[in-house]
Design a protein that fits this description.
This protein is 60% helix and 8% strand. Helix 13 crosses helix 21. An eight-stranded mixed β-sheet has the order 3-2-4-1-5-6-7-8, with helices on both faces. The protein folds into three domains: 85 residues, SRP54, nucleotide-binding domain (Four Helix Bundle (Hemerythrin (Met), subunit A)), CATH 1.20.120.140; 196 residues, P-loop containing nucleotide triphosphate hydrolases (Rossmann fold, 3-Layer(aba) Sandwich), CATH 3.40.50.300; 156 residues, Signal recognition particle, SRP54 subunit, M-domain (434 Repressor (Amino-terminal Domain)), CATH 1.10.260.30. By secondary structure, the chain is α/β, with parallel strands linked by helices. The chain binds guanosine-5'-triphosphate and magnesium ion.
């Protein structure tokens, strides 16, 4: 997300750095460029205008023209303003500690409501240790219940059983009773979508809201629709009490205009971003981290969180033990490669690492790191268990067999063996310096973040 804006800012700030000192006209020119970049990212005009005015006021107030590092100063001011625009207040999902929490999901047809209900259910179960119940109030399509049921099975939480021909309001009442009997902590209500906002939909949501008194009413919006998403949010908030929005399909949105205009237009915080179709493809929306990503400062905090989520603690401990004894074999390399794949592959990881964000486009197509990961996995899988544990025994004839088995060449095999040697030497050195002092949780993060560089240098 935000790639286009991010690239534009990159150019603007580089230009400013080159000028060294900044006079009023170069500041004005930079602000004009920033304004244009925002508009091209589909940010609403009033939002872009107000943004520029604020940055200008701040810049003048801070006597930026006379400061020694004007480019950094402007970057800092733009960063702060981005955080303000994205919503500076905490946007954590409200979860009641005692009693139950009730979430009502609303939105237009196909915006991603049902998928999001599954994702948030998974989040509440995994991250907050809550007993979750999903409820389908979508009686408009016969398949709607089955879709939610499938998701409930996938994430392993309960779903309110179906009773034929019941109206949404009656299903809601039944859900509240069921939840009391089953001691459910969190109730997630999926609703029917509509092509347009119509009175019937609004009346239905209004009625539901009164019946279930939600802890949060969450509006699910497709970020790809840009300004339209902002208009939809404004219209919905006129009739129902929207407490937060969730942007979906952010994985496919290079512009990010909806996110930047949302808070300004609706005064409603963005709580989550949907980043794909999988049940774990959702991120809590942290304005500071997003602002950092836009300005190309990377987002190491999210990266480390992703790493520790993906890499189970015991795995990390087991790995630490092996490393301590200098026993890093090709099986371990394979599991590292797979972990990286789980975290979304190298190109996804690169977005989070400062300075690497723009590298992706600079890698020639034939050196696509994702391809090399697949190749390396194929090579290791074509080895016998014995070869993986004792790579030293891999001689010429074994290499020939492995190359044929994995559809690669001998020089590919040599490269991976060399890389393994280099890594295990590095590990040995590290372990001599006292590997035991390294927190196993961090280890996952360090390996996850450290490997891509090595893979990149090693062209397959
Ligand atoms: N790439 C991507 N796809 C998503 C995301 N969220 C949902 N989808 C996909 O969008 C499609 C529609 O999602 P649903 O959850 O069925 O949408 P809905 O709002 O419940 O649709 P209706 O019930 O018909 O109104 C599905 O194919 C989802 O897999 C996301 O964050 N990223
Ligand atoms: Mg649905």
């Amino acid at each position: 997300m935000f790639e286009s804006l991010s690239n534009r800012f990159d150019v603007i700030f580089k230009g400013l750095k080159k000028t060294g000192s900044i006079d009023e006209s170069s500041l004005d020119a930079a602000l004009r460029d920033i304004r244009r970049a925002l508009l091209e990212a589909d940010v609403a005009l009033p939002v872009a205008k107000s943004f520029i005015e604020k940055v200008k006021k701040e810049s003048i107030g801070k006597e930026i023209l006379r400061s020694i590092t004007p480019a950094q100063m402007i970057t800092k001011i733009v960063n702060d303003e981005l955080i303000m625009a994205l919503g500076s207040d905490s946007s954590e999902l409200k979860v009641n500690e005692s009693g139950n929490s009730i979430y009502l999901f609303a939105g237009l047809q196909g915006s991603g409501k049902t998928t999001t209900v599954g994702k948030i259910g998974n989040y509440l179960k995994e991250k907050k240790n809550k007993k979750v119940l999903l409820i389908s109030l979508d009686t408009s399509r016969p398949a709607a219940f089955d879709q939610l049921k499938k998701l409930s099975e996938q994430i392993n939480v309960s779903i309110l059983p179906k009773v034929e021909d019941q109206l949404p309001i009656d299903i809601a009442k039944r859900a509240l009773q069921f939840a009391q009997l089953q001691e459910i902590d969190c109730l997630l209500f999926d609703t029917a979508g509509r092509i347009n906002i119509d009175q019937t939909l609004m009346n239905e949501l209004n009625q539901l809201e009164k019946e279930i008194s939600p802890t949060e009413t969450l509006l699910v919006l497709d970020s790809l629709t840009g300004q339209e998403a902002v208009n939809v949010a404004t219209d919905f908030s006129k009739t129902i009490t929207v407490t937060g929005t969730i942007l979906t399909r952010v994985d496919g949105d290079a512009r990010g205009g909806a996110a930047l205009s949302m808070k300004y237009a609706t005064n409603c915080p963005i709580k989550f971003m949907g980043m794909g179709e999988q049940m774990n493809a959702i991120e809590v929306f942290h304005p500071e981290r997003i602002a950092n990503r836009i300005l190309g400062m990377g987002d190491i905090v999210t990266l480390v969180e992703k790493a520790s989520e993906t890499i189970k603690e015991e795995d990390a401990e087991k790995m630490a033990e092996k490393l301590k004894n200098g026993e890093f074999d090709l099986d371990d390399l394979l599991s590292q490669i797979r972990q990286m794949k789980k975290m979304g592959g190298i190109s996804n990881l690169m977005k989070f690492i400062p300075g690497l964000k723009n590298m992706k486009d600079k890698i020639p197509q034939k050196d696509n790191p994702e391809d090399s990961i697949i190749k390396q996995e194929a090579i290791i899988l074509s080895m016998t268990k014995y070869e993986r544990n004792k790579p030293k025994i891999i001689n010429g004839s074994r290499k020939k067999r492995i190359a044929a088995g994995s559809g690669t060449s001998i020089s590919d095999i040599n490269k991976i063996l060399k890389q393994h040697r280099k890594m295990s030497d590095m590990m040995k050195k590290l372990s001599k310096k006292g590997m035991g002092s390294i927190d196993p949780n961090m280890l996952g993060g360090q390996l996850g973040a450290g490997i891509p560089n090595d893979f990149l240098k090693n062209k397959f």
